[in-house]
Structure formats: C-alpha cells, structure tokens
C-alpha cells in the first residue's frame, strides 16, 4: 500500500462513494486498528472516501460505527445487535471485538496495524464464521523506517520478534497460510521455499488433502484484481470477487480519492558566488529568449520576459544544488520552482541550458579558480599547521628547560637554607653552652655566697663566746665573780 498504517489512508481506495455503493449493498466488514484513536481515524477516512463527511460523529450512523474497550457497555450491546441485524455493515474496532464474539455475518476483514501474527490470525478468524467464505486484507507499508525492507535484511538469527515477524510476513514469497501455521508452530515466518519446516508443512497439507490456498502469494493475479476492483464489491457480486476475481470488469467511472499535496516551499541552496549565479540566470534568460523567438517567430506580440524573466531564472538558480545532483537535471523541480511551463518543451530546454552552462567555459573557469583557491587554502592550512606544530614543539622544549631551571633554583635554595639552618644551629648551640656556663657560674657564686655567711656568723659567735669566757675568767680571777 502507498500510505502509512497510522494514517489509514489506504482505505481511500477500498470504499466507493455512497452514491455508488449504498450502505445496504456494502459487504459486512470489520476494520481492526491497534488503538482507540485508530478506530476514529479509520471512520474519518472511510467517510472521506464515501463523501459522507463528519458521519463518524453520528452514533447511529447507517454505514460505520466503532467498538473498543472504552465504548459504554450498553452501546456495545446495541451496536452488536444492530450489526447482526444488518442495520449497518462496517465496524471500526480494536482487538476487543475478537474476544468472545461469534459474528457469522462477517465476510471481510481489514487489519490496519501491526502486531503478533498469531494475534492477527485470530482477528482474521472472525471472518467466514458462517462457513460461506470471506476476504481478509492486511495492508502493509512499502517501506518501513528502521525496519527490514528486503529479503537480504533477514538471516536465520533474526527471524523472531514481533516487528521482524511482521516485516517477514510482508516480504515472504512463500504461501501465507503455511507461513502463519509455522509462526504458530515454530515461532517464525519462513523466508524461503527451501526452509525444512516449510517443506514439511506443505507435505503435511498435501497429505491431508487441504484445498488450494487463496493467499496473495499463491494467487497473485487474483489478489491484484481484488485490490484493483474492490471499490465495486457489493453483497450481490461478493461471491464472484471471492471465487473468480479476474472475471470482474473494472468500472472506469470510479476514481480513487487523492488528497491534494500541501505545497512545500523549498529553501534556497545555491552555493555559487553572486557573480556566477548572476551569469547562470542571464544564460537561462538568453536561452529562453532564443527558444521563444524560434517558437513564435521574429515578431511576437509579447516579450520573452513576460513569460520567463529574472524572477523565474533566479528561482532556478536559488535551487540549483537540488536541481543538479550527481550530474542529473531534475526537470520536475525546475517546473515546480518556476510555477509551471508556459510553452511545450520549455522545461526540457531549461534543463539543457543548465547542462550547457555547466559544461561551458565560464563555469569551468569558475571550477578551476575554486579548485586553485581550495588548494591555496589547503596550503595555508598546512603551513599554519606546521607552524603550530613547530610552536608546540619549541614550547615543549622551553617548558622543559624552565622546569629544569626551576628545579635547580629550588635545589639551590634548599641547600642554602640547609646551610643557614646548620650555621644557625651551631650558633644556637654555642649560645646555649655559654648560657649554661654562665648559669652554672652564677649558681656556684650564689652557693658560695650562701655558704660563706653562716661560717662568718659562726666564727663571730665563737670569737664572741671566747671573749666572754676570757672576760669571765679575768673577773673571776679578780674576785669579781664567784
């Protein structure tokens, strides 16, 4: 399919306008989405395709209603009753409708999302419950961002995982019935007819007399016919669609709704200098002028600039990098930026004019000058790089020398300090010895002084005692004392 699964725009090619297929003629269908918001988006796209805008907000619409986990229980019951009675033919739902429901009326299943293939098979199983056959559609994106988009992206070690299995289901060339069976049995989708599990399952189905498979891989032309004509599918011709889709003649009056693409303004990307860009614009104007006079003759009513002037030429030059990629001129982009061509062959002429200018002398000289300038810049850069390397080398040497000098200075200062400390230590020791000697002398003198005073006192006492005794003897001899 052309669009992303999230947008649900692939449904635009499935449903016809309400004027072509009325609700009562629509085949009973379930459209599964991966989320509640997805169910509403599906309803919007379906009503857009049927040209019944805003009917998705009509709770009792006669064509499509939704069913999901947040739908009120009474609404669920009433919607299912109306669906089984044929009041409306299409239900936009999430996986919740596949739980505990036995809907024999369903003839078509459309699954708009991704998930575990085994869970998708359960949802597809809602179809054909009445034993009368059905069609299941699983739209897949042509290319999934960051996904596996070719058979070469797969190997034997990367076949498991939900996203990988869905990518494998979209790309595998083998029978889808067998592939989904093996996914349930061994947990992966086979990618080759030589897969031993695939061959064993094919042999088992053949031995059990299984009917031929109707999948899009086994019957590719029939599947293509169904997709091509599915807008014409109704209750009356459903059996033909199911059994013999190649017999359905395409109704050319039915047109698939195509959304109008939003106009995107391209950002200018011209990398040419102003002089070169102006020269290219002038060359384009001159080329168109010659083309104009060759087409309309020498005396046209209007000037060439009335149809292609400076504004259009400048618009082309502004986007020249995008227009000229890898030597290929994008003529569609030329037509886009000038607002469409005025004359048949105008865009092709402008493309040829650009090629001629690119190969011309002026542009080639510009390329040479630019190359010479680049070489000059490169030489200057190399020279500066060498100067920087030399500066860094010399700086490293200077730093090393300064470090050595600083270490020597520090060592000399330390040695000087040690010498000074040693000298100060000697002087301190001498002073300490002198101080101790003085202290000892002083102490000795003090001791001598303290010892000499008592002796003198004793001598004076002894002398006084002797004198007293002598006096007493003299008095006694004189008879003064008894």
TrEMBL record:
EC number annotated for this UniProt entry: 5.6.2.4
Start-end of Basic and acidic residues biased regions: 472-482
Residue ranges annotated for the Helicase C-terminal domain, each copy included: 58-131
Gene3D superfamilies from the UniProt entry: P-loop containing nucleotide triphosphate hydrolases
GO terms assigned for molecular function: 3'-5' DNA helicase activity; DNA binding; four-way junction helicase activity
Highest taxon, organism lineage: Eukaryota
Span list, region Disordered: 417-482
Keyword field: DNA-binding, Isomerase
GO biological process: double-strand break repair via homologous recombination
Matches recorded under PANTHER family: ATP-DEPENDENT DNA HELICASE Q1, DNA HELICASE RECQ FAMILY MEMBER
Protein name, UniProt field: DNA 3'-5' helicase
Source organism: Puccinia coronata f. sp. avenae
């Amino acid at each position: 399919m052309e669009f992303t699964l999230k947008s649900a725009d692939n449904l635009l090619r499935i449903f016809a306008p309400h004027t072509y297929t009325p609700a009562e003629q629509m085949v009973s269908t379930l459209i599964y989405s991966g989320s509640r918001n997805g169910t509403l988006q599906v309803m919007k796209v379906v009503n857009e395709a049927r040209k019944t805008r805003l009917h998705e907000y009509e709770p009792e619409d006669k064509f499509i209603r939704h069913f999901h986990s947040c739908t009120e229980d009474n609404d669920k019951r009433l919607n299912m009753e109306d669906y089984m009675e044929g009041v409306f033919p299409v239900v936009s739902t999430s996986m919740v409708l596949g739980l505990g429901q036995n809907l024999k009326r369903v003839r078509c299943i459309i699954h708009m999302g991704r998930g575990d293939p085994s869970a998708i098979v359960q949802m597809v199983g809602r179809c054909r419950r009445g034993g009368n056959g059905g069609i299941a559609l699983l739209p897949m994106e042509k290319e999934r961002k960051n996904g596996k988009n070719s058979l070469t992206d797969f190997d034997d070690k990367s076949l498991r995982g939900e996203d990988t299995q869905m990518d494998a289901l979209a790309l595998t060339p083998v029978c889808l019935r067998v592939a989904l069976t093996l996914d349930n049995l061994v947990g992966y989708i086979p990618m080759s007819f030589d897969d031993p599990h695939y061959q064993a399952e094919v042999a088992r189905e053949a031995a059990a007399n299984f009917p031929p498979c109707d999948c899009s891989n086994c019957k590719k032309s029939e599947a293509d016919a169904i997709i091509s004509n599915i807008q014409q599918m109704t209750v009356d011709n459903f059996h033909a669609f199911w059994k013999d889709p190649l017999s359905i003649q395409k109704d050319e009056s039915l047109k698939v709704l195509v959304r109008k693409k939003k106009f995107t303004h391209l950002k200018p990307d011209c990398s040419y200098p102003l002089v070169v860009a102006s020269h290219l614009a002038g060359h384009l104007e001159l080329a168109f002028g010659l083309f104009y006079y060759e087409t309309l003759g020498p005396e046209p009513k209007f000037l060439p600039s009335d149809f292609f002037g400076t504004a259009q030429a400048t618009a082309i030059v502004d986007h020249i990098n995008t227009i000229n990629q890898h030597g290929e001129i994008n003529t569609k982009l030329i037509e886009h930026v000038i607002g469409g061509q005025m004359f048949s062959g105008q865009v092709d002429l402008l493309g040829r004019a650009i090629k001629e200018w690119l190969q011309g002398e002026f542009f080639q000289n510009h390329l040479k000058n630019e190359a010479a300038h680049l070489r000059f810049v490169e030489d200057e850069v190399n020279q500066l790089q060498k100067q920087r390397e030399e500066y860094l080398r010399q700086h490293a040497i200077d730093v090393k020398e300064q470090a050595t000098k600083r270490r020597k200075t520090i060592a000399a200062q330390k040695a000087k300090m040690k010498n000074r400390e040693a000298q100060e230590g000697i002087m301190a020791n001498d002073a300490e010895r002198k101080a101790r000697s003085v202290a000892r002398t002083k102490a000795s003198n003090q001791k001598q002084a303290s010892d000499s005073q008592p002796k003198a006192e004793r001598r004076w006492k002894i002398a006084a005692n002797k004198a007293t005794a002598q006096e007493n003897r003299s008095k006694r001899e004189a008879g003064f004392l008894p």
